[in-house]
Amino acid sequence: MLIESRNDEMVAGSWLNKDRYDAEATLLPQALRKVEFEGTHFLGPYEFKYHSPVKFVVHQWLRLPYITVLRDRLEQFQFNRQHLVRMDRIAILRHVYEASLETPRREVSSITVAASIYSNRIFFHPDKNRMLNHCRLLLDSLVASGDLAATGTVYTLAPTALQTLSQYEEEERRHLDVLSQQCALKWFTFVLIAVGLLQAYITWMKP
Predict the structure, then answer these.
(1) Bridge partners of residue 12, in order along the sequence
(2) How many angstroms separate the CA atoms of 120 and 187, rounded?
(3) 3 state DSSP class of 108
(4) CA pair distance 44, 27, nearest whole angstrom
(5) Crossing angle for the helix pair 128-144 and 89-102, nearest 10 degrees?
(6) Is the pLDDT of residue 85 over 80?
(7) Does pTM surpass 0.85?
(8) Which of the listed residues 20, 64, 96, 179 has the most CB atoms within 10 Å of its CB?
């Protein structure tokens, strides 16, 4: 109810009818105690909803909505200065796979993927269009390789994606094993050199 006038005997206003307050209404003052409070503070594109009149008044008095907007704009400013790292095909495929585990036959798009990876702040970033196009190209590439299926602008996981992920993880594991072996070989070589130098020093120090 939008209160327009009030006196000791009656409260007059309008009920919300769809999206307009055009249904006239009158209430007794004591009836207001049974009416649920709902307030919305519009501040540019921001909306602040309240279900407590006390909270509404306190927030307005402390200017908390304005502080929240200022903080959000500062965070967006900092985000806009960042250089966004582009995701590769496997990272995108893993993202779609994880989303499909939560919701079978989960449909994604370049917009939902970008929002999930970079948060909704991506839509206010100067490189928004480039990043969205990059995500779309990667998704189309995964469709071409048979890992995703496309219906219009939405994509779903294909069964072959599991094999692709398994092969990549196996190759990644082998690569890590090779790096581990190379690291161990370097340390072994270092130890041999140290032992050789120590033996040479002992031999040289003998009278």
Answers:
(1) 5, 26
(2) 47
(3) strand
(4) 32
(5) 80
(6) yes
(7) no
(8) 96
